[in-house]
Structure formats: C-alpha cells, structure tokens
Design brief:
DNA binding (chains A, B); Rossmann fold; Tscrpt_reg_LuxR_C (chains A, B); DNA-binding; about 50% helix; homodimer; alpha/beta; WalR-like (chains A, B)
DNA sequence: ACTCGGCCATGACATTTGTCAGCGGGGCCC
DNA sequence: GGGCCCCGCTGACAAATGTCATGGCCGAGT
C-alpha cells in the first residue's frame, strides 16, 4: 500500500528536491505539490493524500494556519510540519493546529521518511529535544494586545505608527510595550521582540 | 562526461533532497556533501568536483567566505551560490568572492541543473531580475564604522552597550547611527538596519 | 455581588535616541 | 600645501521611548 503525499513549500527548488528524495522510497507517492498555504486545502480535497508535509513560511496562509484548515476540511489527512526553525512556539502552535508530526529541515534525511511512516501508523512524531525546549519555554505570559504591539514593532515602526495601525492611543501602545519589555526581562522593544520570538510567545 | 558536484548546505534534509534531485540527471554526480562552510575547501581538494554548490547560511564559515577560500585553493572548481535570499548584497559579495553562478532556492527546479551545465560551459549564470536589483542598490555609502555600529545594533543593544563593545564614546555611536539613518533615509536604527541589510550594505 | 484580569486611556516623569554644529587628528590625492 | 573624507570626540537640544500611578469599562470566574 503506497502512502500518498502532499508537499507544500514556497521554495520551488526545495519542493522539487524533496519530491525527488521522497520518490526514492518505493512506498511513497507525491500526489500534489503546492507553493502557497492557501492552496493546500483545495489540493488535499482534490487528491486525498494520506499525509501533508507543510512548511511554515509560505505566502497566502502560513503552514500552521493551513494545518488548521486542513484538519477541518480533510480530516483523514495527517499533517506533518516541516520547517527550518525548531522554535518552541512553532511546535506548540503546530500541535494546537492539529499536526501530528514536526520535523526540522536539518534533521538527517532518513528522519523524514521514518516520520511519515510512523505518522501513518498513528504515532505522533516530534524531536525530543525540541519537545523539551517547548515545555521549558512555557506558555506565553503575553496578553493578546501585547502580542499585537510587539508584532507591529517588527517593521521598525515608531509608537505613532503602531498606534495608528492598531487604532490605539500612543500612551496605550507605550504601556503595552513596557509590559512586554518587563515580561521578557529585557530593556527595550527590540530585545523584547527577539526573546518573545525565540520563546514562541508570538 | 559527467559533471562532478560538491554540495554544501547546513540543513541535512535539504542537502539530501538536493542530492536526490541532482542524481536524477544522468550527467551529474554528487561526489561530496558537507554541512559546514569550513569543510568545503578540504572536501573539494579531496574530491575535485567540477562545480561546488554553496549555501550562504552555514556554520563555521559562510558560503561567501567559503567561495573565496575555494577560489584560492581549488581554482578549477567553479562556484555556484545557492541560497534562500535573493538579496542584492549577497549577489555582489558572491561575485567578488569569485562565484560564477547564483541561484535562489525558489527558482523552478530545472533552473539549477541548467545553471550548473551553463557554468561548466564557461558562462556566468545570474537571475536577471536580481542582477538589476543589485545594480539599483548601488555601492554601500556607509563608512566602516557606520557598518560596525549598525551591526552591533542587531542584538537590540542600546547605545551604551554598543559604545562599550566598540570602545567608543556614546556620542560618537549616536553620531554614526544618525549618519546611517540619514543614508538609508529611514527614521530609526531598526529601520536603518533593515534596509541596509536588504541593500547589502553590511 | 465581588474580585480579578484584560483592555484602553491619561498625565507626568526620567531616560534614551536622533540631530546638529563644531573641534582636532590623520591619510590620501592633486 | 590644500582639499577632502573618515575617524573620534564634545555639548546642546528636540523627539521618541520607557516607567509609573491612576482611572474606567468589560467579561469570566468564585
């Protein structure tokens, strides 16, 4: 019985290469391959893969969101997240989105095939080290608004810009920023953003 | 006549996948595969590849530096940079380092094989759009110190920290930062860092 | 009913950051 | 020698940022 796969990654070359790699295995068949998150669900509905391999960074819809849509629309299809970054927050969010596997791109090549087979067998597959890190990072102490404001900081915008974009007063924005800085135990917004990012508190 | 290839990418899975992809071509043979920049030159010396495919982000030595070393130690080996980011500065630096090809990872899969063959034939291969962007970005107007200070900003450190790290007065640091902000036509250090990054002014 | 927490805001304050003008020293090139 | 530019510094000022106290409005839980 061959395992039908869907591949989603925004980098064409990587997608092609992964496809080539997976095709080397006799029991795998790549039945669909897309480059945007918002094409995942349609492709899965059309081709009925057993497993969807989703990258996180994708245009349209990120892999985590795509996983959630997929779980709702094509529940028979198991989701494995395949990403560059073994960030704690990604893993947590992937699990919440219904993924059953999580593989980082610097794992040895056999890992992927192995993970796919185990997922099909009903197991959950996660790198143990990453799982530990995720637990260590704990839940995000940031409130929704604090997250919003921190995220808006990413572009380098000033308080005024953020306030405008979020329809808040400037003072409020500064307050949230201050709270975020306190909770991350840093000394300014950019450090706060960096550690919140690392901890997956986004 | 088969073309001998060396593959350097820090992500095992990607390296394996690319290897699989390239092996599909009858005239290619992957003779070496490494995961660190500082292993490139030795591997090339040992296996005498015709073409080295180097990723930029690598531990030990980045792909650009590795290209320079390779050009000096194994001049017969042509260098193709294979990277995620089609950033103007990368291309410029790649060319300065002696690379003859530059392929981005979201190019269509055939592009890579094509680029390799053309490089072997003596051509230079660069995405035209990227080449144009690189010319548009122009040479860096930043002075050495301005670069240093901007780079130190990356971690999110404040003026005082940067001054300490660079053995400068705080006022001087602020002046350089101000100059960098002016030259990038932005409004604060973090925007300045972002655009300088994009333009390859590092 | 009461409390707690998130949300949004204000005002006041200290600190940091960005800008500007100006100084001296050195290297390079005409 | 005289320009020119980079380097490094200072001092002064305006603007942005971070902190704190305080208040009101909600919804969820006890």
């Amino acid at each position: 019985m061959t395992i039908r796969l869907l591949l989603a990654d925004d980098q064409d070359l990587i997608r092609g290469a992964l496809s080539a790699l997976l095709d080397l295995e006799d029991d795998f068949e790549v039945v669909a391959s897309v480059g945007r998150g918002d094409e995942v669900a349609d492709a899965a509905a059309a081709h009925r893969p057993d497993v969807a391999l989703l990258d996180i960074e994708m245009p349209g819809l990120d892999g985590l969101a795509a996983a959630a849509v997929l779980a709702a629309r094509v529940p028979a299809c198991r989701v494995v997240i395949l990403t560059t970054f073994g960030r704690a927050g990604y893993l947590r969010r992937a699990m919440e989105a219904g993924a059953v596997g999580f593989v980082v791109k610097d794992a040895p090549p056999e890992t992927l095939a192995d993970a796919i087979r185990r997922v099909v067998a009903g197991e959950r597959v996660v790198d143990p080290a990453l799982a530990a890190a995720t637990l260590a990072a704990g839940d995000s102490p940031l409130t929704g608004r604090e997250r919003d404001v921190l995220n808006a900081t990413r572009s380098g915008a000033g308080v005024a810009d953020i306030a405008a974009r979020l329809y808040l007063s400037e003072g409020t924005v500064r307050n949230y920023l201050s709270a975020a800085i306190a909770k991350t135990a840093t000394r300014n917004r950019i450090e706060a953003l960096r550690v919140a990012d690392e901890r997956g508190w986004l």
